[in-house]
């Protein structure tokens, strides 16, 4: 796996200047909700459409080809899994899973946020009906996740989806529709960690 560094310009909305992750507690996976959109188009979207307007970014984006782009250095904050909306299950902001994994970073959305302690990975998708990934994207995502888990000593139990953190967001769609496929993904990551 080769990582291609293509950092977003420092900007309050995408790559906040001087804001560092306080801890690295979890790896959170997302999908790019536009059919067939590649990683460089996602970079353009963050860099040109979100900057100055919309809080959105992620540390990594995996292309349909399996190429891994790093948009934000691992030590900096990216905006990908914060929440200010109620999780339908726990009736609180953030899910029970998020509270367990993030602790104080998932308690007070006004002052703190899970973005202070999470590394975010976007995955490009082939379609929006189910949000299918290419085999290359899935393979690279597993390798990247395993490498981050190893580097930062993040256990597999702290590899999650955006949906697992906030409850209300259908992200990644494929793993919301078919939770078993996310379990398969985690098994793949575990295999890489133990192999
Ligand atoms: Zn997401």
Description of the structure:
It is a single chain. The chain contains 6 helices and 6 strands, in the order E-E-H-E-E-H-E-H-E-H-H-H. The protein has 195 residues and is of the alpha/beta class. The protein is globular, with a radius of gyration of 15 Å. The model has no long low-confidence stretch (mean pLDDT 96). The relative contact order is 0.21. It has a single domain, classed as Lysozyme-like (3-Layer(aba) Sandwich), CATH 3.40.80.10. It has helices at residues 39-50, 96-102, 135-152, 162-166, 173-177, 179-194; strands at residues 3-5, 26-31, 60-62, 68-70, 118-123, 159-161. Helix 3 (135-152) crosses helix 6 (179-194).
Give me some keywords for this one:
binds zinc ion, single chain, alpha/beta, 195 residues, globular, 32% helix, Lysozyme-like
Classified in CATH, the superfamily is Peptidoglycan recognition protein-like
H-E string? EEHEEHEHEHHH
Helix content: 25-40%
- The CATH class, by name, is Alpha Beta
Rg over C-alpha atoms, rounded to the nearest angstrom:
15 Å
Count the helices. How many?
6
Structural class: alpha/beta
Which percent range describes the beta-strand content? 5-15%
Number of strands: 6
Which kinds of small molecule does this entry bind, naming each only once?
zinc ion
Beginning-to-end CA distance, first to last residue: 16 Å
Tell me what the CATH architecture is.
3-Layer(aba) Sandwich
Shape: globular
């Amino acid at each position: 796996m080769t990582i291609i560094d293509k950092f977003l310009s420092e900007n309050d909305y995408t790559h906040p200047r001087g804001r560092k992750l306080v801890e690295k507690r979890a790896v959170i996976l997302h999908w790019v909700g536009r059919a067939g959109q590649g990683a460089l188009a996602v970079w353009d979207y963050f860099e040109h459409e979100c900057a100055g307007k919309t809080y959105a970014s992620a540390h990594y984006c995996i292309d349909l080809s399996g190429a891994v782009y790093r948009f934000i250095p691992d030590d900096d904050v990216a905006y990908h899994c914060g929440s200010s909306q109620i999780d339908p299950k726990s009736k609180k902001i953030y899910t029970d899973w998020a509270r367990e994994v993030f602790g104080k970073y998932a308690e007070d959305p006004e002052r703190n946020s899970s973005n202070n302690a999470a590394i975010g990975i976007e995955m490009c998708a082939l379609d929006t009906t189910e949000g299918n990934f290419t085999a290359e994207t899935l393979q690279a995502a597993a390798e990247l996740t395993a490498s981050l888990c190893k580097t930062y000593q993040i256990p597999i139990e702290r590899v999650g989806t955006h949906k697992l953190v906030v409850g209300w967001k259908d992200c990644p769609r494929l793993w919301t529709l078919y939770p078993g496929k996310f379990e398969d993904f985690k098994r793949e990551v575990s295999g890489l960690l133990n192999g």
